[in-house]
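Aim 2, interim progress: modelling of the 3-hydroxy-3-carboxy-adipic acid-bound target.
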Amino acid sequence: MSLENFSIIESTLREGEQFVNTFFTQDQKIEIARLLDEFGVEYLELTTPQASPQSERDCVAIANLGLNAKIVTHTRCTLEDVKRAVDTGVDGVDVVIGTSSQLRNFSHGKSVPEIIELAQEVFGYLKSQNVEMRFSTEDSLRSDPQDLYAVYEAVDAIGINRVGIADTVGIGTPMQVYNLVSELRKRVKADIEFHGHNDTGCAIANAYAALEAGATHVDTSVLGIGERNGITPLGGLIARLYAINPVLVAKYNLLLLVELDQRIAELVQVDIPFNNYITGFSAFTHKAGIHAKAILNNPSTYEVLSPEDFGLTRYINIAHRLTGWNAIKYRAEQLGLDLSDSHIKHITKEVKRNSDERPLTLDDVDTILYREYHQQIEGTKTNQPVSMAGD
Ligand code: HCA
Ligand code: CU
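Predicted structure of the complex, ligand included:
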């Protein structure tokens, strides 16, 4: 299992550029690259220089920033493309070609032996160029496994660094990915990369299954942006691994995740989904009275991720009919109101009664708390000796 020693290939600047709303200027790409580098991802994958003159200039600019992350660019499996990629000064080239019958017949039209021949030509050249070499098969999950193994074994024999599995259409299940990576692990010496789309909601689980089966590299993008509904999100992968053991992601600067998600959301003009991993607005909000009580005693009761490790705080929502008196008591303490338990229980009933009629805000609860507090003081005063009444 490579869980202790995996790398992230961050593809916001490649797959993320394929998201419908994305238009990154060079300055924005550089800003994103620097932020991801500071976060600590091991690789940044960039759009092929073959896409457009600006894409080529962006590759050159980012390859020359002197970042810690390795800079790799994506290319088709042609000599022309990889030559152009190498000329930009990147550290590595991520070559990809479709192997499913769908793509072989309707995209590039090549047979499996032709794919192998092409790959041999392309990597024959790259070998002399002192760059990291990766070969990936597009639509791997719908490819015939025998075709895949034939192609991967041929490129492995050339001595490339990594082979990649791509669930291009998001059809794979964790079990399928696990089995495919396990089999591949037995057949090749190269590192194994997994790239998974999220069409059916399995992108994070599939990436995790790949790591469990021996994959060494996982592709992500910030917020998961990419073609259609995107790929494994960086934050989601981090959440998944952190929940196994925070040590696994201790090499990353987790405090930057919020800024990354917010900045990308802003640049591509989307809201961070309410249910997003870690940075969604309700990710650390607790509501039901039973949850609130336990969380107040010990946050691990209902939290597998500690918000403070991501620079965030938990929030306990108390203004609703599911509330409980422990949560109301906690709020009274926050406000510095010393109320007896019987008062708190009485207030809790009132909050529930009110919230059966209309949605309440925290202000409403606070108003009830203050009113009850003053009534309690008044009550205490009238019971007190006359000499102390004016204190
Ligand atoms: C695509 C290509 C790709 C490539 C993945 C890879 C995919 O845009 O269709 O290079 O590993 O999902 O297959 O993103
Ligand atoms: Cu993709």
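The domain at 7-267 is CATH 3.20.20.70 (TIM Barrel). Confidence is low (pLDDT under 50) at residues 383-391.
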